[in-house]
Amino acid sequence: MDNRPIGVFDSGLGGLTVLKELLKKCPNESLVYFGDCGRIPYGTKSRETVQKFTMQDINFLLTKNVKAIVIACNTASAFGYEMAKEHFDLPIFEVVTPGARAAVRETRNEKIGVIGTPGTITSGVYESAIHKVSQNAGIKVVSKACPLFVPLVEEGWWDNEIAMKIVEEYLLPLKTEGIDTLVLGCTHYPILEKAISRVLGEGIRLVSSGVEIAAEVDEFICSQEIVTTNDIQKREFYTSDSIEKFAEMGKDFLGMEIPFIEHVEIDRF
Length: 269
Fold this sequence. Notes:
Elements: E1 6-10, H1 16-25, E2 31-35, H2 47-62, E3 68-71, H3 74-87, E4 92-94, H4 96-106, E5 111-116, H5 118-123, H6 125-134, E6 140-145, H7 149-155, H8 161-175, E7 181-184, H9 193-200, E8 205-207, H10 210-223, E9 235-239, H11 243-254, E10 261-263
Helix pairs in contact: 1-10, 2-3, 4-6, 4-10, 8-9
């Protein structure tokens, strides 16, 4: 048994979509979340910069004595996971492979769309993961970078006219490709699910990694017998930007009040 918390980090608020699923799947576990809102977005930055940020984010979470870390950011998963796994001696989970696995399971015509930040899309990490999971050379993956989606989410423009126009601009070309499954390859994107569904229609299934990664973490901590025995669960939140904005937006993301939040000077790590 292990009463230490699980650490989760993202470039901003999007990783709260993953945290929300962890709260459902692992309700007895303590959770510590860091949102690097002061340096968002990661998806337009270089590989080297994202790797640096990933290492700093993990170094910070280690000060909270976490027993495992979830990289709840697709770009950080794409660019920083392998380096982090080699550098740090604790379980680290990424969000790309679970999303790819879910997409392969959901597709019926073997035409899968993937949307994400420019960094995630140009890395080709989802195409590689989907083909590795499926082991089917005939499966088709159509990818599209949607760089304005993250600012939309962070601004709170999730389901208004501006959001609809931008979603249409990015996704209508994907619809003509005949995909039947779309991977929301950024943890911010599930917040735009209503707008995306209206543009694409009911025939295209939307896949996000939150449910999959939560199940993976739960299975791991159970198999390794490191589940908590504490009756009281810790819920701590940290941000590199405005506490007030994080608290306001985080409440909408999670559907609950943020019980504890502090500002972090992340460059110190």
